[in-house]
Design a protein that fits this description.
This protein has about 475 residues and is mainly α. It has one domain (about 10-455). It is about 80% helix and about 0% strand. It has helices at about 10-40, 50-85, 85-115, 115-120, 125-140, 145-160, 165-185, 190-215, 230-265, 270-305, 310-335, 340-345, 350-360, 370-380, 385-410, 415-445; strands at about 455, 465. It has a two-stranded antiparallel ribbon with strand order 1-2. Strand 1 (about 455) and strand 2 (about 465) form a beta hairpin. Helix 2 runs antiparallel to helix 3 and helix 10 (about 270-305) crosses helix 14. It is globular and about 60 Å long.
């Protein structure tokens, strides 16, 4: 029952996957957010240290993009193979994904380290903020392999029905990061360099945990040496399905670069720092809906592979409804308590004042994000990579990036940068969700290929129907 997602109530299986995943993602978020909290309160930096950390975001997002390319591409294929009882193929997907992540991490490290100076200035650094950005980045990059393997391979633990172990992966590293951050930043007076070092060491411990589990006896499918040699045909399948996540993160990188460069022109270092805070708040408030939709993917993919399309439809409905409810509540919270959110990251009065207006603009209509996340996760989970790729490009590359450049030059100034996001959420989110509904959801209802009704005997001796067609 633990590993078979075709049994039990769909919403319970999704929640069972999503809750530990949300906690795991929250802990993962602490790796970077805690750094920003400490850095934002460093004495004598006048918010420039926080601005410097914000300039590193595009590169860390680019690393995350390549992690998604293979991690979020391999995990759904792995789930579908498990649902279809193709265990050898599932283990081959597992091994190939690891090799692709590790090889890419080495390339990313050398390229980013060698070209970090011109890249940081391209991303909006000034002479005043560059020193902080470089001090953080040149240490952070040494943890590239740890970060990519931890994040990319942890999904395979969750997909095997061990969300608690997946949660422990990030919990261990984050607790260590919480302990090491103040020691290195304040105790050893390393500042931003200490924050980066604490993050790298913590990610290394998390990486060791993931590899130990995936090579151990508890895993259903394990990481084996014979599957580490890359099968380029399978690699193309993995990359094709992960291309949606790659493009989503890659376009996030593009938008961050465009935002920082535009804000540097229209608002200076202060507003680059404000965007760092706004992005931090967005990461926190987006986390539950991301965890929900990510947690639904193994359940949807497994039932799709098992041809239980009625259960796939139930999962989509539940994920969409809960996601809309949460994002609406989050939007109302931002409107009511902007000062509380800003105080987590900054003490600087000028940044706090500018940040309040920016938060309210940026989060306007935040509930539209639920439509984007739900549609995107359904396309990814069920292997509809072309649709997932298209809507990733539509929202960020086609809508946000051009508006970020255009709106400030139409007289809106820095407000135009923060307004581009809600406009893209409304247009892109609705387009993605409605397409998913007409192209995928309705078709699954017409196919109705689920098997004849089955019953199983529970512990109490009764029977339970396992889904219904129709």
């Amino acid at each position: 029952m633990t590993n078979d997602f075709s049994q039990g109530k769909v919403w319970r299986r999704i929640i069972g996957q999503a809750l530990p995943l949300m906690l795991a993602q929250l802990v993962q978020l602490l790796y970077n957010v805690v750094d920003r909290v400490y850095i934002g309160h460093l004495p004598g930096t006048d918010s420039l240290a926080l601005t410097g950390i914000g300039l590193v975001f595009p590169l860390t997002t680019l690393i995350a993009a390549f992690t998604c390319l293979f991690g979020t591409g391999g995990t759904p294929l792995f789930s579908i193979a498990r649902g279809a009882k193709e265990e050898e193929r599932a283990e081959k997907i597992l091994g190939n994904t690891f090799s692709l992540l590790f090889g890419t991490s080495l390339v990313m490290f050398f390229v980013c380290f060698l070209f970090r100076r011109p890249v940081l200035y391209l991303f909006g650094a000034s002479d005043a903020s560059y020193g902080y950005a470089d001090a953080y980045l040149k240490i952070y990059l040494f943890g590239t392999a740890f970060s990519m393997i931890t994040t990319g391979m942890n999904g395979f633990i969750n997909a095997q029905g061990f969300p608690g172990m997946g949660m422990a992966t990030t919990l261990i590293g984050a607790v260590l990061n919480l302990i090491l951050d103040p020691i290195f930043i304040f105790g050893f007076r390393m500042g931003v360099s200490g924050a980066a070092l604490a993050t790298v060491l913590s990610q290394g411990v998390s990486c060791a945990w993931v590899l130990k589990f995936l090579t151990g006896k508890r895993a259903v499918q394990t990481l084996k040496r014979k599957h580490l040699k890359v099968d380029w045909g399978l690699a193309r399948e993995i990359a094709a399905l992960g291309m949606s996540g790659f493009i989503m993160q890659g376009t996030n990188c593009l938008v961050q670069v465009v935002c920082n460069a535009t804000l540097k022109v229209f608002g200076g270092d202060l507003y680059v720092g404000v965007m760092t805070v706004v992005n931090s708040v967005r990461e926190i408030l987006s986390l539950p809906v991301q965890g929900l939709t990510s947690g639904s993917q193994p359940v949807l993919g497994f039932n799709y592979g098992a041809k239980r399309y009625d259960r796939v439809r139930q999962g989509i409905c539940f994920t969409a409804a809960l996601g809309i409810f949460y994002t609406t509540a989050a939007w109302l919270f931002v409107l009511k308590e902007p000062h509380l959110l800003l105080s987590i990251f900054v003490e600087d009065a000028a940044m706090a004042a500018a940040g309040e207006s920016a938060l309210k603009l940026y989060f306007f209509g935040f509930f539209f994000m639920a439509f984007q996340f739900t549609g995107q996760s359904c396309f990814t989970a069920l292997g509809y990579s072309r649709y997932a790729i298209f809507f990733s490009l539509l929202r960020k590359a086609v809508i946000v990036a051009p508006l970020t450049v255009l709106l400030p030059r139409l007289g809106l100034g820095v407000d135009g940068v923060f307004l581009a996001e809600p406009i893209s959420n409304g247009v892109g989110g609705l387009a993605c969700f409605l397409t998913m509904y007409f192209v995928l959801y309705r078709r699954l209802g017409r196919q109705q290929p689920c098997p004849e009704r089955e019953t199983n005997t529970g512990s109490g001796g009764g029977t339970e129907e396992n889904g219904k067609c129709g």
